[in-house]
Amino acid sequence: NAISLKDSYKKDFYIGTALDTNQIAGKNSKEDFLIKKEFNAITAENIMKSMYMHPVKGKYDFTFSDKFVAYGEKHKMFIHGHTLIWHSQLAPWIAEIKDSTEMKALMKDHITTIVSKYKGRINSWDVVNEALNEDGTLRKSVFLNTLGEQYLIDAFKLAAAADPKADLYYNDYNNEEPAKREGNINMIKKIKAAGGKIDGVGIQAHWRLDSPSIEVIEESILAYAALGLKVAFTELDITVLPNPWDLKGADVNQNFEGSAQMNPYPEQLPESVQVKLTERYASIFKLFLKHKDKISRVTFWGVHDGQSWLNNWPIKGRTNYPLLFDKDLKPKKAYQSVLKLK
Ligand code: XIL
């Protein structure tokens, strides 16, 4: 079977996947075959986050990022770096910084060291990840607390100086929703006005069967593209499971592990939900194709259902079905529906 996602969408946009350490080691040969067959872009799922790559002050660990980049080069893939400045999976020593001078020095060292190391090899970067609250205001973080909103401008300037040719992205979730989108647009305008180079916006696209609506996604593609930005869908997956914060009156901190209500399909996905997922993927990709001139990349957050982070988030130990390949690496009906559009 010569047909694949990457070949079918070759003229439209990159089709990517997130990879973690065991995948770049090629330990599972069936999975490795699938990655090479279907995808032409890769994002590091975890290995380039500061807690792993810069765990101690002045000490970088490039063991796995080197392997990740080599894997992408070997297979002629588009390589995306994720992520330079993020409040989460943050090296503990960075979280402790209180002083603005020290934070400025850290940002300069961190961004310059990493981006220049892979200059000309990593094609694009998530320079800043998840800096916004749902209402579009700036999220409190050690970066905002020590440097104010100047940290955003500095981050993009430093990355551009380290590799002028790499595409620089701001990446977030729910940034297709109107309030957050509005905040995102204002923030990007400020960064640009202050001389920061920003080439694109990443919409993570951790979506659900029923939201966001196709209309809201389309408005976002148009709004971001109107700023002259490339639009990338950077972490696409579609959960089919209930989320604790949807339960009226439920305490979201309650321990739902092992709850049958929260893990309704431990063995297999019922046909009716499979149909919904298939239709959802088809309508999303139909929209992507409509705006292919504005979209640079569509990356799935994982290769197959068996290793998706959504089996463990926001509740551990569930069985989710968010991707195009099932846990046995077989293409799902959703995969066929995405291919059929071409
Ligand atoms: C997730 C990974 O998939 C998990 O393996 C890890 O435990 C937590 O982080 N937004 C992001 C990604 O930008 O880096 C996150 O990845 C998912 C949410």
* Helix/sheet category: alpha/beta
How many separate helices?
Answer: 13
Poorly predicted regions: none
Strand order of the largest sheet: 1-2-3-4-5-6-8-9
Give the N-terminus to C-terminus distance in angstroms.
Answer: 16 Å
* Overall pLDDT confidence: 96
Bound molecules: (3S,4R)-3-hydroxy-2-oxopiperidin-4-yl beta-D-xylopyranoside
Number of domains: 1
Strand content: 15-25%
Shape: globular
If you consult CATH, what is the topology? TIM Barrel
| Element pattern in H and E | HEHHEHHEHHEHHEHEEHEHEH
| Rg for CA atoms | 20 Å
GO biological process, one term: xylan catabolic process
Pfam families: Glyco_hydro_10
Active site: 235 (nucleophile)
Protein name: Beta-xylanase
Structure report:
The chain has 342 residues and is an alpha/beta fold. It has one domain (5-241, 256-340): Alpha-Beta Barrel (TIM Barrel), CATH 3.20.20. 39% of the residues lie in helices and 15% in strands. The protein is built from 13 helices and 9 strands. Strands 1-2-3-4-5-6-8-9 form an 8-stranded parallel beta barrel, surrounded by 5 helices. Helix 7 runs parallel beside helix 9 and helix 12 (271-290) packs parallel to helix 13 (333-340). It starts with a helix and ends with a helix. Bound molecules: (3S,4R)-3-hydroxy-2-oxopiperidin-4-yl beta-D-xylopyranoside (XIL). (3S,4R)-3-hydroxy-2-oxopiperidin-4-yl beta-D-xylopyranoside binds at residues 45-46, 129, 204, 235, 309. Keywords: Carbohydrate metabolism, Glycosidase, Hydrolase, Polysaccharide degradation, Signal, Xylan degradation.
